[in-house]
Design goal:
alpha+beta
Length: 112
Amino acid sequence: MIFAAATDEGTLFVLPSLEDAIAYCEGIDVEDGGWLFWNENGSALVADFVVPNHRGRHTICSGAYQLVPASSLPSLEEVLARILQMDRNPYFTDLSDVRVHLASASQASFQS
């Protein structure tokens, strides 16, 4: 499960996998800061472009990227207060459910 926030509208999306997140979020928008990502535990992820985006005079083509851990970026728990809404998904009904999930994930990693 991957959390992705659309920064322009403050919407949190919950996607089933890294592959789904990458397919859903276009590289051009990711590079422009339109998306932020976290793993299922709320740890930040950042896009690492393996094929750069291309911006021509008349065309724009999204490159290819992968999502990698980014410990220097804020966790989802730290950013959640700035999220305005949540996209429908099969995992959580609202943002309070996400808060509970992140708290339990944090507690589980603390106990390990």
